[in-house]
Amino acid sequence: LISSATKSLRMETEILEKKLQDAQMKLAEKDGDKEKEIQSLKRLISELEFQLTMEKSNNESFLDKLRKEIKHKSEELEKLTQEKTQLIHSLSQVQEENSLLQDTVRRECEERFELTAALGRAREQVLELRRLSGTLP
């Protein structure tokens, strides 16, 4: 009975040891798979971090270009605004000068008209005087 119980216990022990070895092998496989997955994820993280660094660098470069362009455009706008102000001032002066010239031309035309009228009257008087002097002895 003891021999049979011992034999039965040994068989059970062997079965349990085999199950333990199988479980250890499966656990070792799972550990290996997890380690591979961890390494794969680490590589992926490294690649993504590199891509992120490159994107940040590209974005910073792009932002620098945009800042420079904005600065350049602001300077151009300031220059154009100054030119516009100067042109408006020049236009105002030209308009004022034009108004003065128009006024001068108008006065000169009025004077010319008056002189022409006076000349016409003087001619009439001369003709009248000639006619009168021609009839007088």
UniProtKB/TrEMBL annotation:
Presence of the UniProt keyword Cell membrane in the record: no
Coiled coil among keywords: yes
Domain of life: Eukaryota
InterPro entries (alphabetical): LEKR1
Coiled coil: 63-97
Keywords from the named record: Coiled coil
PANTHER family: LEUCINE, GLUTAMATE AND LYSINE RICH 1, LEUCINE-, GLUTAMATE- AND LYSINE-RICH PROTEIN 1
Record-given protein name: LEKR1 protein
Originating organism: Promerops cafer (Cape sugarbird)
